[in-house]
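Entry for the shared binder. Reason: the reviewer on the internal report wants the predicted structure included alongside the sequence.
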Amino acid sequence: MTKNWPGFIRPLETVDEAVDRLMVILEDEHKAAIAIMQENELIGLHFGLGSAIRNAFGLHEPDSKLLESCGVAHPDDAAGTIIQVLWRTLQPSK
């Protein structure tokens, strides 16, 4: 899933920036798989996509503006927030 993740020029600072980046780097098949999940199933992405987000987006860095933007103190929770916003973004408009 993370083979297309390029190095980042500058650290991401907001949840919206993180979701925008994911929308570019995730393959369409992965976005489609996330889109059809039920919200309560998103926890299943914790070790795969969540781990990739935590590592690639620097959520373990003590001065991470992205972590601060997520409104939580722990990188695991921040990755969950980003995944949830990504999932909402992928939901069809009603």
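Summary line for the report: The chain has one domain: 15-90.
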